[in-house]
Amino acid sequence: MESLRTIARRVRDRGGLESRIEELEAEVQECRQLNLRLAELTDVVMELLVPLADRDEARVAELLQHYRDSVNDPPVPGPR
Amino acid sequence: MRTAVDVGCGYGRDVMWLARQGVEAWGLDFIARAFKRPAKRAERQGLPASFMWANLTELRSVMVTGALLARQPGPRVVLARHVADATDATGRAHLLRLARMVAGRSGRLYLQVQIARTPGEGERGVKVLDVDDLLAQVADLGGRVLERHDLADDEGGDAPDSSSAPTICRLVITWNP
After folding, report:
1. Alpha carbon of residue B163 to chain centroid
2. Which chain B residues are closer than 8 Å to A53 by Cβ?
């Protein structure tokens, strides 16, 4: 039969595991966000690196606007 | 076509053939030793063949190579035979980015990938690709498929109605909307 101390340790460990999973989930989410930002930035750089004659200017404008929107401060909420 | 870029050119056989036809031909590979000899031969014979080291799994290499080749005379075509199926998902995404930069709106990307194992053959260094996944990657980057041919290995690309099951897929892709 397990001692009370062993059972108490197991319960404590499980609590630690849950908080560790929460931490890891937050880190995975942050990694996803970073990958998304990197892909957006790569799109912009890729379009800007090609010569003017080959550049899709409408696409460049669209990418820059999208990138600008993603890095700007969020809009200030208006009065209710 | 004024310029052709062979991604994963290996020993540069196709690059040298294209150069002999008068095309400005470029070969890219991540094993520089492989194209050392043909590069010297091209220089000796005055052929318009050039070779460059590039690494598809390294974004900086892809961007700088794309920027350099986008300055070559157009229209430019990109050839990638069994490259998308020899690299990972990141390498495939980078290959498509490179092709988009190089081909621009007037050029094309010619891809050949393995879609099933050839009966009785080993792995040959390539993986079997899910074409739908690849087509989704193409669409994500704004590409459009102009032609698709699923062929058996023994067809050599010329006989569309073979009794053998298709093992390779050839795609022609444009970035012209």
Report:
1. 27
2. 74
pLDDT tens track for B89-99: 999 999 999 99
**Residue B78 and residue B3 share a domain:** no
Complex ipTM:
0.74
- Same-domain status, B86 and B5: no
Q: Which residue has the higher pLDDT, A62 or B100?
A: B100
Sign of CA dihedral B11, B70, B144, B158: negative
Q: pLDDT at position B31, please? A: 95
Residue B102's CATH number:
3.40.50.150
Q: Closest by alpha carbon to B84, among B74, B64, B99, B70?
A: B99
Range of the domain at B34: 1-53
Residue B123 has pLDDT above 80, yes or no: no
Q: Are residues B92 and B43 in the same domain?
A: no
Q: Is A59 on the interface with B (CB under 8 A)?
A: yes
Judgement on whether residues B167 and B91 belong to the same structural domain of the protein: yes
Query: Is residue A50 within 8 angstroms of chain B, CB to CB?
Result: yes
A42 vs B59: CB contact, 8 Å cut-off? yes
More confident site: B158 or B135: B135
For residue B46, CA distances in Å to A16, B10, B42 come to 70, 21, 6
The answer, yes or no, to whether residue A47 has pLDDT greater than 70, is yes
